[in-house]
Design a protein that fits this description.
Layout: E1 4-9, H1 13-23, E2 28-34, H2 38-48, E3 52-53, H3 57-62, E4 68-71, H4 79-87, E5 91-95, H5 102-115, E6 119-122, H6 129-139, E7 146-154, H7 160-163, H8 168-184, E8 188-196, E9 206-213, E10 218-224, E11 235-242, E12 246-250, E13 258-260, E14 263-265, E15 274-275, E16 278-279, H9 282-296, H10 305-324, E17 328-329
Parallel strand pairs: 1-2, 1-4, 2-3, 4-5, 5-6, 7-10
Antiparallel strand pairs: 7-11, 8-9, 8-17, 9-10, 11-12, 13-14, 15-16
Length: 333
């Protein structure tokens, strides 16, 4: 693979995860970093040997030595760096959700078309081995007609102070909604959402949603941010029932776990694990795929930005339904 020179926009905790994954990808090189907190960008650059720290988005997007921008800013702040980078001729990887409203999704997708550049959204589960293997079974016809899907994606209560800046449906349910759209290849026509505020915060800590797909399949998504501090960070599962088979994906109980004096611990072995200090897992796989697409000048067919926009549309309908206490229809093309 030809060398791909990357600028990083967003040097928070997940930006650092991206950095570590890029460092494990042959041919990928982080050449510049930017963060609204300039001091933080400087610290990250010093730690990871990034040669240039930029003082503005304009600077990092205009650099001749940058092929692509990696946007790891907060969820509601994707539009400006994405469009600015695309219009500067850069390819873009942006973390999910693509945006927190459909209008901004449309603006970014249109900018990618207009500028003829790659826009890839970080729907990481399409690159996680178990979920990707299930897609192979679906495509091969081994599951039969999909009848029902149920996804659980629960997190510790201790993470709420950081992640409750965003509605948990946009933070977590969007992963499983993207999977369901991917597996079925069908649009969602109606949703019914439910939420609770057990901790009294601005955004709910408990979300359930029921999705009805064209063709009749049903999907249920669940995300609850109330797990106790018990050594479990990822309580995730996915069940698919078809006319020919039933498939189950589960991260808990973990296939690898540790019993320490401090308690029971289930390390992440799927999304962003470390082995001998090197990043592995789905995050590295999706970023490596993005780099291959950039190096070879081909579209990111594994996750077209239009798919990411549809997932946002469904999530927003789910949030609307929970707030109204009623079904919400999603207009079809």
């Amino acid at each position: 693979m030809h060398r791909v020179r990357i600028g990083l926009a967003g040097c928070g905790a997940f930006g650092e995860s991206h950095l570590q994954s890029f460092r494990a990808i042959p041919g990928a090189e982080i050449v510049a970093a930017y963060d609204i907190d300039h001091a933080r960008a400087g610290r990250v650059a010093a730690e990871y040997g990034i040669p240039r720290v930029c003082g503005s988005l304009e600077e990092i997007c205009s650099l001749d030595g940058v092929d692509a921008l990696d946007v790891v800013t907060p969820e509601a702040e994707h539009r400006r760096p994405v469009i600015q980078a695309l219009e500067a001729g850069k390819h873009v990887f942006v973390e999910k959700p693509l945006a927190t409203n459909v209008a901004e999704c449309e603006a970014m997708v249109e900018a990618a078309r207009r500028c003829g550049r790659i826009l890839m959204v970080g729907q990481i589960l399409r690159f996680e081995t178990k979920y990707a293997m299930l897609q192979d079974e679906v495509r091969a016809g081994n599951i039969g007609e999909i009848v029902s899907m149920h996804a659980r994606r629960n997190r510790p209560k201790s993470l709420l102070p950081v992640y409750n800046r965003t509605h948990p449906a946009l933070e977590n349910c969007i992963h499983d909604i993207d999977l369901m759209l991917w597996y079925t290849g069908k649009r969602v026509r109606r949703v019914r959402g439910y939420h609770r505020h057990a901790t009294g915060r601005k955004n709910p800590d408990t979300v359930w949603g029921v999705l009805e797909f064209d063709g009749g399949a049903l999907g249920v998504v669940e995300t609850i941010w109330l797990l106790p501090e018990a050594g479990i960070m990822l309580d995730d599962s996915f069940q698919m029932i078809g006319t020919r088979a039933v498939a189950n994906v589960s991260l808990l109980p973990g296939s690898y776990n540790l019993l320490r004096e401090s308690g029971y611990h289930v390390p992440d072995v799927s999304y962003d694990p470390r082995v001998a200090g090197t990043a592995r897992g789905a995050l590295r796989e999706e970023l490596a795929y993005f780099c291959e697409c950039v190096a070879n000048g081909r579209p990111c067919a594994a996750i077209p930005p239009e798919d990411a926009m549809r997932a946002v549309e469904v999530v927003l309908a789910l949030i609307e339904s929970a707030e109204k206490g009623a079904d919400v229809e999603i207009p079809g093309a």
